[in-house]
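Sequence only, no structure available. Ideas?
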Amino acid sequence: MLRAWLDEAVLVSELLPLWMRTAAFRDLPHQWFWDGMEHVDPAKEAAAQATRLASLTTTLAYEYARQGRDWETELRQRAKEVALSKKLGLSQAAQPSPTPEDAPEEREESEV
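Reply:
I predicted one. Tokens follow.
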């Protein structure tokens, strides 16, 4: 689709800069990332995604693409965040929030 558009765009004078009108530019590899859609229940989707990743039935590239994001960009950003957290002496451990099933037990323990 992009190639067809570029083939037409080069025919319109001054639409594209000169450097973009070359055949080499039109043959550059590219990827499409469509906007992702938020799941109705993000907690269930996160659990399902974790299961798919753990069972190797999906890839990070696919999971990020479902969100409309580039997996390589996101991993590079995450690496920067982890490196800065280590440099600042911050903990990397994620603290999961209690599930509804856990909540009554915690209340009972705190009441005792």
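The longest helix spans residues 71-87.
Hope that gets you unstuck.
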